[in-house]
Specification:
By secondary structure, the chain is mostly helical. It has 3 domains: 46-147, no CATH class; 167-286, no CATH class; 309-408, no CATH class. The protein has helices spanning 2-33, 40-48, 51-67, 74-84, 89-98, 106-122, 124-131, 142-165, 168-185, 190-197, 202-215, 220-231, 236-249, 255-268, 272-286, 291-298, 307-320, 322-331, 335-351, 362-378, 380-387, 392-399. Residues 1-32 and 37-45 have low confidence and may be disordered. This is HEAT repeat domain-containing protein. It comes from Luteolibacter soli.
């Protein structure tokens, strides 16, 4: 009898441990995404809610806890949205009240964004008002989750609300989306409309128009259309800003297309001084890997580049390909470029705290020393006079011999 009772006690203990372990495991899963505190209000809200709402909330909670502390997978996001897209405003508010810890966990943050997007589809003003309150006000993405569906559904209403009630930041957010929408719906009149109806949308219109031009493979037709839109505006500042944005759209793109755009800009008659800036910047990009062509173009009358800009380009060249640059300077009687580059690089080292024992000075000494030798060969008096102004240790660097391979 005693043995039987002992076995029964052991079985009960084992079952108790197993049950506790199962509880602990489930508890860890629930805690991973956070569990809302149970209050009288939450119990009453759940008891009074329609069955369809409680079922949807339970399904979302199950998906949320599967994700835990991780980002939901695309499939999980799709499953969540299939539930949320059927929510009413009351359903959205009820589930927001069920999510603990606000936006502190990835799964919760993703659901909150979806819930506000759905809320904005039905009641954008209410969603905006709630989204700008704690704990959501600290989120940078929350206003956009409201504004995007709002502008898509009722752009004029969004602008009216922003003018009457919006803060500067809210006007900017709404303006970004309004500008994007205007440019897509009515590109020819978008800038004029933005300026007249909602000035905060002007920058977004400019960006969208230049992006659309780029998306159309930078075609001549798309650029001419953009130039035509600009020519019809009476605001020179807006025209300049749009051309500026167009320049940047070619920064990492097809440089040959950019040169074609320069020519078309000239033909449009829009702001010759900006066209000239565009031409110079494009040419710099095109000739980035062709330093000699770039150098010769910068020295041409067409370039209008200053002497400082020419020396700067030469300095970049001599640091990457010293033999080519030095030979070019001698051939084109530009020893003054050599001299200025030697001075710039030497003074830069002095300002950086150069000392004779610096192990990192080898490459600098090699490149600068070779330039100095070329300068001294063509202008010995000027080079020696400048050398005499340097600290003794640095004079020794320039007076030391170089071997055939250009090292000490």
């Amino acid at each position: 009898m005693l043995r039987w009772k002992l076995k029964l006690a052991i079985v009960a203990a084992v079952m108790g441990v197993a049950t506790w372990a199962g509880y602990r495991s489930e508890r860890r899963t629930m805690d991973a995404a956070g569990k809302p505190a149970t209050t009288i209000r939450s119990v009453v809200r759940r008891v009074m809610a329609p069955k369809s709402r409680t079922e949807s909330i339970d399904k979302l909670n199950a998906l949320r806890h599967v994700a835990g502390r991780s980002e939901p997978t695309p499939r999980e996001m799709q499953q969540c949205w299939e539930i949320i897209r059927g929510f009413t405003v009351e359903d959205v508010q009820a589930y927001l009240a069920e999510i603990p810890d606000g936006l502190n966990r990835p799964a919760n943050s993703a659901l909150v964004s979806m819930l506000f997007y759905r809320w904005a589809q039905m009641d954008p003003e209410g969603a905006m008002s709630a989204g700008m309150q704690p704990p959501y006000a600290t989120s940078r993405t929350m206003p956009y989750m409201v504004v995007v569906p709002w502008v898509e559904r009722d752009m004029e209403g969004a602008m009216r609300w922003a003018k009457a009630n919006g803060s500067d930041s809210e006007k900017m957010i709404i303006g970004n989306e309004v500008g994007r929408m205007l440019a897509k719906q009515d590109p020819e009149n978008a800038l004029a409309r933005a300026k007249a109806e909602f000035p905060e949308a002007v920058n977004a219109v400019l960006l969208e128009l230049t992006e659309l031009t780029e998306q159309m493979s930078g075609s001549k037709e798309s650029r001419q259309k953009l130039f035509g839109i600009l020519a019809g505006l009476d605001d020179p500042q807006i025209k300049r800003r749009c051309l500026y944005e167009l320049r940047w759209s070619y920064d990492e793109g097809d440089q040959e297309q950019a040169l074609a755009a320069v020519k078309e800009m000239e033909e449009s008659g829009l702001f010759p001084e900006q066209v000239e800036i565009f031409r110079r910047e494009v040419s710099y990009q095109v000739m980035r890997e062709k330093p000699q062509e770039r150098m010769e173009w910068m020295m041409s009358a067409e370039s209008k580049a200053s002497t400082d800009a020419q020396v700067g380009a030469y300095t970049n060249w001599v640091q990457s390909k010293p033999e080519e640059a030095i030979a070019w300077a001698a051939e084109h009687d530009k020893i003054d470029f050599l001299a200025e580059t030697v001075k710039k690089m030497t003074y830069s080292q002095i300002r950086a705290g150069w000392v004779p024992t610096d192990d990192s000075r080898g490459r600098w000494e090699n490149t600068t020393h070779r330039q100095f030798n070329a300068w001294r060969e063509h202008q010995p008096e000027a080079a020696e006079a400048w050398l005499g102004t340097l600290p003794t240790e640095m004079q020794e660097v320039f007076n030391a011999p170089l071997s055939n391979n250009g090292t000490k």
